[in-house]
Specification:
Elements (H helix, E strand, L loop, with lengths): L2 H11 L3 H10 L6 H5 L4 H10 L9 H10 L2 H16 L3 H16 L4 H7 L4 H10 L4 H16 L5 H10 L3 H42 L1
Length: 213
């Protein structure tokens, strides 16, 4: 089964009846009354949102917003794990960017507004993020980075992010990202080298095998 559908089923199973009622209320502006009357579970609600293109495997913002409203940190961790897996299948440049996002979310704190402005995120978007996640600093940081990536598109690259961190004098965070990038680069080199050794051993064994046969 598709990983995203597995995630949605897992989230649905973890919802109480009162939480489902709250989700239905939160989605009443997105789902018609007729469709909402047929919703008896989280899966039913998510199916409607999928049909209406409000939600898909690459756009999980609405699901995150709903789970934040429920204050279900356990379900948010499942979403984080899903997104981390999706990032792992992204091109290397995007993997580096997602890894930097995680470090920024852990260390920037209340300075996220200054960083967002340096990244040219409009003040209206910053205000909307604060309203959307009023008591969740980590999600405020993460959402600001998502907005920047979505808005900047091809310009949303690690070098620009690092320059913005340095401009905001968030040098410790920038240093942590550089250290992480170096460690990840060494890990990739080691994995590549071990793969080459494995191939060489297979090649060296091949003549011996043929000779003995």
């Amino acid at each position: 089964m598709d990983r995203f559908l597995v995630l949605l089923h897992s989230v649905s199973t973890g919802l109480s009846s009162s939480e489902l009622t709250e989700l239905k209320f939160l989605c009443q502006d997105r789902v018609s009354k007729r469709k909402m009357e047929r919703v008896q579970s989280g899966v039913d609600l998510f199916s409607v949102l999928l049909e209406q293109n409000e939600l898909d495997c690459e756009r999980t913002e609405l699901l995150r917003e709903l789970l934040v409203s429920l204050r279900r940190q356990d379900l948010l961790r499942r979403l984080d794990e899903y997104e981390a897996g999706a990032a792992g299948r992204a091109p290397p440049e995007e993997q580096d960017l997602y890894a930097a996002f995680d470090i920024i979310c852990d260390h920037v704190g209340k300075d996220w507004r200054r960083l967002a402005r340096q990244l040219k995120v409009p003040d209206t978007k910053i205000d909307a993020i604060e309203v959307k996640y009023p008591r969740n600093l980590t999600e405020q940081v993460r959402e600001s980075l998502r907005v920047w990536k979505s808005t900047a598109q091809e310009d949303a690259v690690l070098s620009h992010l690092m320059a913005a961190l340095r401009a905001c004098r968030l040098n410790l965070v920038a240093d942590l990202i550089e250290e992480d990038q170096q460690a990840r680069g060494l890990q990739n080199e080691n994995e590549s080298s071990s793969g080459s050794v494995s191939l060489m051993s297979w090649d060296s064994d091949a003549p011996a095998s043929r000779a003995s046969s």
